[in-house]
Amino acid sequence: MTDLLGDAASPALALARKWRPRVFADLKGQEHVVQALSNALTQGRLHHAYLLTGTRGVGKTTLARILAKCLNCETGVTSTPCGVCSACTQIDAGRFVDLLELDAASNTGVDNMREVLDNAQYAPTVGRYKVYIIDEVHMLSKPAFNSMLKTLEEPPAHVKFILATTDPQKIPVTVLSRCLQFNLKPMPPALVAQHLGEVLAQENVDAEPAALNLLARAAAGSMRDALSLTDQAIAYGSGRIEAAAVETMLGTVRRDYLFDLLDALAARNGDDLLEQARTLAERGIAFDAALQDLGSLLTQLALLLHAPRAIEASADAERMQAAAEQLDVETVQLYYQIALNGRRDLPYAPDEFSGFCMTLLRMLAFVPGSQNSAPGSIPLRGASARSGSRSLRAESALTAPARRAEPALPAAAPVAVVPPVPVPVPVPVPAAAPDAELVAPEPAAPPAAELVARESTPHAAWDWLTVVGELRLGGMAKMLADHCELVSQAGDAVTLRVGEAHKHLLDLAYQDKLIAALRDKYGATLVVTIEIGAAADKTPQQVRTRIKQARQAEAVVAIESDPFVRELVDQLGGQLDATSIQPLGENP
């Protein structure tokens, strides 16, 4: 790797200029383009127009200049220009008369293009080819593009066009069809960090590997941006590049803070979580960047949980492993989605700090299996006469203490009611006696609590419904477990049955995942047999369906037996729509 200038003045140049590639071998990350052009030059299969596309800083203009040297090197058309002849040195210095670089962003009109094309008919002055490099070609006007078509289709033999753009979609297809198109890829952070290390080693600048990784990620695939940020980091750190200084310079969040946030979330400690948010605020860290970096960390955690080989070694590998042990795959995915939505909603929050805090609290509230989000049996309340209001609320439910010796209706899940029938004229409702007791009717169906206890106790030692709920399964493997019935379980031998209607779930991959999850929970010696048999009636899916139906029946009974509801129906002459009643905590 060689720098652009070798004299004493070269250190004064910006790194992006000083280390600009001068031959194909120095170009990083674009091997697919280099190979195609090198083969074409070696075999003499030259095209009259090339289109280089890609995001900023990936080497479009640099590649165009190298190609111009390959075409005009005094040693002949070659893929390895000498770099010392008059043509090569003048192209490097930007003084070659037969190389014309045109910025289409400032020369958009047809008159500018016509002047270029009129000059193209003349033979080159000193070189072999007259090369036109048109940067940001998509900025040309439609008339300017139209004026190019004839020349692009039948150009003079001594003319080569090299077009470069960051937005090829804006180029007319009539122009695209006349060019060889090469797409330059954004460079991966690992490659950028490696190149920065090589450059800094020759510049005699000490740099921490973690700092180079930060600069590489901030460059977003652009080598030019990476070198410019490195220049800034050298100035910021007085000749030494440290990770802490780069984090401060870039305004990124230290990974320690992010891991502290995850620890607080895993511990479900709201006070600690808000304290970490205040720490970020005191350090002046942008909350949008904090959510972005948190999403990036969650992405790495998801990879660690699903594909550990995809994770590169890092200084915080121990904390990554600790976080992965505290969070399951579903929780990581949920946190990631909430972080994305939090970034989107941040501009609409009263202020960024409150928006950031609400995003963290949302993660705390909706974590799977948490006390806040788990559906539970909440005591049912009757309408209170002391409140002075008899309006029904969505979260209201009814309890029915027993007045007779017969068993009372157990507490049902809270119920939600659709809005009552609109009443054009208010009807006065007589005041009810305070603390009135409600008499529960005979239950029409077994109570949900009874049904849960009865359905979740198989004849074997295992509680299969509970076992399936504790397994870390997803997708089709989870569906297979939900449609299996526990036939027998004795020691390490377990037999499951799948009904004929669901035998399509017995794919070997799904079976392997289910068996692996059971062995992770109960030991590697477990022997699991899955058979196809008569329709199973005690699968977790069927048990949950029956429990849901029982809860729905209890909810309907609780609403229909409420005196206030009956009185309201009688006065309005309406009819209660049982399908609109739903236990609280279930999706409509």
From TrEMBL:
Record field: catalytic activity: DNA(n) + a 2'-deoxyribonucleoside 5'-triphosphate = DNA(n+1) + diphosphate
Residue stretches making up the AAA+ ATPase domain: 46-188
SMART domains attached to this UniProt entry: AAA
Residue ranges, compositional bias (Low complexity): 380-399
Keyword Disulfide bond: no
Enzyme class label: transferase
InterPro entries on file: AAA+_ATPase (IPR003593), DNA_pol3_clamp-load_cplx_C (IPR008921), DNA_pol_III_gamma-3 (IPR022754), DNA_pol_III_sug/sutau_N (IPR012763), DNA_pol_III_tau_dom-5 (IPR021029), DNA_Rep/Repair_Clamp_Loader (IPR050238), HLD_clamp_pol_III_gamma_tau (IPR045085), P-loop_NTPase (IPR027417)
Gene Ontology, cellular component aspect: DNA polymerase III complex
Any one GO biological process: DNA-templated DNA replication
Coiled coil among keywords: no
CDD domains, sorted: AAA, HLD_clamp_pol_III_gamma_tau
Molecular function in Gene Ontology: ATP binding; DNA binding; DNA-directed DNA polymerase activity; metal ion binding
Keywords: ATP-binding, DNA replication, DNA-directed DNA polymerase, Metal-binding, Nucleotide-binding, Nucleotidyltransferase, Transferase, Zinc
Pfam families, sorted: DNA_pol3_delta2, DNA_pol3_gamma3, DNA_pol3_tau_5, DNAX_ATPase_lid
Annotated EC: 2.7.7.7
Region (Disordered): 377-399
NCBIfam families associated with the record: dnaX_nterm, PRK07994.1
Family membership noted in the UniProt record: Belongs to the DnaX/STICHEL family.
Annotated PANTHER family: PROTEIN STICHEL-LIKE 2, REPLICATION FACTOR C / DNA POLYMERASE III GAMMA-TAU SUBUNIT
Main function: DNA polymerase III is a complex, multichain enzyme responsible for most of the replicative synthesis in bacteria. This DNA polymerase also exhibits 3' to 5' exonuclease activity.
Subunit structure: DNA polymerase III contains a core (composed of alpha, epsilon and theta chains) that associates with a tau subunit. This core dimerizes to form the POLIII' complex. PolIII' associates with the gamma complex (composed of gamma, delta, delta', psi and chi chains) and with the beta chain to form the complete DNA polymerase III complex.
Protein name: DNA polymerase III subunit gamma/tau
Organism of provenance: Thiobacillus denitrificans
Name of encoding gene: dnaX
